[in-house]
Amino acid sequence: MNEISIGGRPVGPGHPTFILAEIGINHNGDVGIARDLVDVAVVAGCDAVKFQKRTVEVVYSPEELARPRESPFGATNGDLKRALEFGLAEYREIDAYCRERGILWFASCWDEGAVDFIEQFDPPAYKIASPCLTDDGLLRHTRATGKPIILSTGMSTLEQIDHAVAVLGERDLIILHCTSTYPARPEELNLRVIQTLQARFPNVPVGYSGHEVGLATTVAAVVLGAVLVERHITLDRAMWGSDQAASVEPQGLERLVRDIRVIEKAMGNGLKRVYDSELPIQRKLRRVR
């Protein structure tokens, strides 16, 4: 298994699960909300927060930007997309705040210019979002930064994943199983794919990016061997925004982190033994020794 470290934190089997809180675009273009979401992740005990960065005119066609779409920001899809993008001033504030709060941050970059923009902040890693898995140019450009890469695999076939891994190489790579529905139904989570990916890429750590409602299935992903878990977070699932309903609220995030840490302790090493705490019960209840 390849050794990977994100911001000094080792990620892989035998290490604590790396818990990534996806802020994404749930800040709704408000850096104050972004700061509040960073606080939520810190209080819960997450290892890092993640944002999304796009060069709007590169990622979306003029026709797509002109498409009618009602939002608090205007009447077109372009109004929405531009309003959700933070610029240099906002990311400087986010960078400073995350350093102040002692939490790592990085981003999913949807185009090469976005990678160049985020690189000025020297992030500890990059995330390749599921829609970008087939963009070889973006994969190569991101790999050229020399940073660890987390690859989400929603809406992708095994053959497409094979190709992306071949482009990226297995070094400093983490693969995340993912179903790209918001929110995803339990019957479409297919958590055993975590084990499929582990067998297919034995040298690459495998994790899980969840968009489901609830927490139990994410905890189950850890039981199945996910070394990194990612969930979208929100201040309130009723807030405006396309990702809010598939996100975890503050109290839920605290429970998720707590339950993952309990599961890590409970998994043990697989070696059957009699614990000292069992001996008094053994002496009391076992008639034949």
Molecular structure report:
- The protein has about 290 residues and is α/β, with parallel strands linked by helices.
- The protein has a single domain (about 5-285), classed as Aldolase class I (TIM Barrel, Alpha-Beta Barrel).
- Helices cover about 40% and strands about 20% of the residues.
- It has helices at about 30-45, 55-60, 60-65, 75-85, 90-100, 110-120, 135-145, 160-170, 195-200, 215-225, 250-265, 280-285, and strands at about 5, 10, 20-25, 50-55, 70, 75, 105-110, 125-130, 150, 175-180, 205-210, 230.
- Strands 7-4-3-12-11-10-9-8 form an eight-stranded parallel sheet. Strands 1-2 form a two-stranded antiparallel sheet.
- Helix 1 packs parallel to helix 11 (about 250-265).
- The chain is globular.
- It starts with a strand and ends with a helix.
The outline comes out as globular
Q: What would CATH call the homologous superfamily?
A: Aldolase class I
Share in helix = 25-40%
CATH topology: TIM Barrel
CATH class: Alpha Beta
* Overall number of strands: 12
The tally of structural domains comes to: 1
| Coarse structural class | alpha/beta
Kindly provide the radius of gyration, computed on alpha-carbon positions and rounded to a whole number of angstroms. 21 Å
Largest sheet: 8 strands, parallel
- The share of residues in extended strands comes to 15-25%
Distance between the termini: 42 Å
